[in-house]
Amino acid sequence: MLRLARALRRPVALFLLIGLVLPGGVVPAGAQRASRSDLNRAERVREAPSATPAATSATNASPQSANAHEIPWLFRGSDIPPDRDWTFGELPNGLRYALRRNGVPPGQVAIRVRVDAGSLMESDSERGFAHLIEHLTFRGSVYVPDGEAKRIWQRLGTTFGSDTNAQTTPTSTTYKLDLPSATQDGLDESLKILSGMIAQPNLTGSALTAERPVVLAEQREQPGAQVRFGDTVRQTFFAGQPLADRSPIGTITALEGATAQSVQAFHKRWYRPSRVVVIISGDVDPVIFEQLVTKYFTAWQGNGPPPPEPDFGKPDPTKPFAVSTTEPSLPPLVTWAVLRPWVYRDDTIIFNQKRMVDQMALRLINRRLETRARSGGSFIQASVSLNDVSRSANGTFVSVLPIGDDWEAALRDVRAAIADAQQTPPAQAEIDREVTEFDAAMKAQVDTARAEQGAQQADNMGEAIDIRETIASAQVSYDIFLGARTKGFFTPEALLESTRRVFVGDATHAVVNSRAADLTASARLETALKADVSGLANARNAVRKISFAQLPRLKTPGKIVKRTPIREISGPTEIERIDFANGVRLMIYPNSGESNRVYVRVRFGGGLNALPTDRTTAAWAAPLTLIAGGIGKLGQEELDQLTVGRRIGMSFDVDDDAFVLSAVTSPEDMADQLQLIAAKLAFPRWDPNPLARAKAVTLAAYDSNAVSPGGILSRDLEGLLHAGDPRWATATPDQVRATTPASFRALWAPILASGPVEVQVFGDFKADDAVAAVAKSLGAIAPRRASTRPIPPVKFPASTGKPVMLSHDGPANQAVAVVAWPTGGGIDGISDSRRLELLAQIFSDRLFDRLRSEAGASYSPSVQSEWPVGLPSGGRLMAIGQVPPDKVDFFFTLAKEIAADLAAKPIERDELKRTLLPYAQYIARASTGNTFWLTQLAGASYDPRRIAAVNSLAVDIGKVTPEILQQVAQRYLKPDGAFLLAVTPKAADTVAGK
Known about the structure:
By secondary structure, the protein is an alpha+beta fold. Helices cover 39% and strands 16% of the residues. It is built from 31 helices and 24 strands. Helix 4 crosses helix 28 and helix 11 crosses helix 15. The longest helix has 26 residues, at 349-374. The radius of gyration is 28 Å and the shape is globular.
């Protein structure tokens, strides 16, 4: 389909909680990763329905590249103009490829090898084999001994897990490699290794014995209640189809029964050239890519005749209409689907234009639902979406998150809104608003196309192939949309017809979750879904015209006191600092690195340093309440209307030493974006409805933390690591309920009025334009004083030698163990913070090798270092592993052994190289983008030490030696300083830390 913006890919309503309850891979509204309705980065066009390309002469030894007059294989059957930045071709053995040059970031090459083999290709006895082969492939292959692939990639500068990874879905398995600073030799070696991984992995008995526990650990570590609910949804919606019971993770029975022979048989059947596409996007001539693909993949031949394509079935109307579940830890939730068979259609211009009408119709419903939820009512959130799901069904999906336990009232109100949309055409003003949003978002993609990263382009191509669609450029996608607009596609009558049609299908299935067992819930759900709700919808809100003139007026533009180029930085030379008479300091970095993109951050007040340390406050509610509270006389609805068709927004965050309002805008919208932020600081509105909604969301989600060890960590870990400091503690349900509009305002009104204020504007703009815009906005607000309150200390819990024991209500085979050592904080210790990051990566690699690869006790153990630059202390180096309850003590012992070894002797030079090079490459890549400089220079206009810290980055990395890292380990990884924590199931008999 077409390249539609991310902002349009989602419903208007943001999924505050539903996304936490419905895991990926389940298909309710918005949850399907790859679907035709994904208004996605690339507008996609369907390829031919067969997974196997047309036969190619076996005697032709050269690849068949599409020239300018041929139709590339991806675009056969489509009238959408091919994106000629891609080079498409086919090898004689049937393998296809898509290649292009992309220099974002400079020097990087993104490689994806997509195999048309996922969990839907498995038999009952093979459930989980596609994912198991993904794991085994990374262990070793014909060119790489077992376990060496990761080390080879590290020597080439990649980071395992982010630069090298893979993903298995119901329909495919995709292997991913991002090579930083790719060289000819590095590319050659990488394509060679990848070809061996795909064609000849080591699917031996010994490899299977070693890796099977890791896959079982991955399955074990999934959150129980969410997985059970997700399984119920999938099994209900797709009852009678393979997708109902083909989760990629598989089953314990099938995985434990896997043998080398049975896994090899699956590989031989489905891993064949005609089912593979090699995708490469990077900063190298595509001719070289093509030569390497030809060199390493041409000789590969399939084993025996190709298998028949599996039948994914059709939605079955004879299966149960309504199903209920009981998960006490999850909030009540209703989701239903109107399903139709998935049918291949050529991805043509007219097809996409008609689908745009469908999406526009659903956006109108979603906006009305969001308006209702914002103003109070029976539901926290509700949303509708249209998706193609794993080539198994086309469906319209609805999800409803009620307030409290009255899901029937919420369902009635949501259905009433849908029924109203099916009965009465929308007003033209409503349509114009959505069309304007579409236009602006798609035009923004055209404007920023040069800044799209190669890895994103490669991922987009893989997703398009997976769902049998093509990719068009941003400009072509926009032109197709403009064509639909010019032809008058978006009329009230057309949207009414679409709304009626998308809620008609061959089968309807629904699921409701209740906190308490209710034998009548299924029958009640069916009754509620069939009840007549006509005439029950609230009156529609008329679309009002709102302009920036209706924002509260600021004072006269601020005067510039000083304008100084910052020449101390080794790197960018265009950075300036501008001081205004009201005390606001501005730092600008005009550059064309990301075309038509401007980053705005406004830092004010003291951040965590300014919050009370002696009591719990209403700080917990700010992320969901502060922005939504409005400005002056304008509420969130009016502000949404104000910014229709504009790249203007606002988000809020709490940093160590500042509160932050931020946005990504365009050069044209930069001035109004700054005015909006200034008005928010100067004239905040205190609408009570967003707080009521935040309380409902928080209370609905709170119990879900208790059903997994990871949930307990997310709730309690930060508070424990800060010795109970309320700034980091999670608010309890009683504290949430006790928060009132008055207490929220009492905390945040003085904070919004506090200083100092630092403005950062980085990106594609003219320096004088930014200075003038800030003078008229932030430079025009009243002067603010910085707090004179002493910065409060940050405490670390005392080490007792025994773990703090917590429990969860989830599966009895899940536990998590944590070992944390205190480090430090502040800008003066920045060199140590960088060395600790390297030490953490070495620690993490060793823990991974021993806990996962050797013991199979954990799927994703990790070690991380955090050093808060804006706090006087509070840093830590922390190891975390999800393990079976009987392996908690083993984790503690192993972590302590690794820490002791790092302190006892220097690491090997090769281990340092494999750690240092990926870290240096990460810094090099990150420094090509504006967010890197925004982060590095945050607070620098008030603290020049942060500028000096930027200059020391390369020096700190370059001077690292094994001996220096040993000294860092000796300083911080002290045996008697570690904090231990274990979260085990309440039913477990294991007692850790004896």
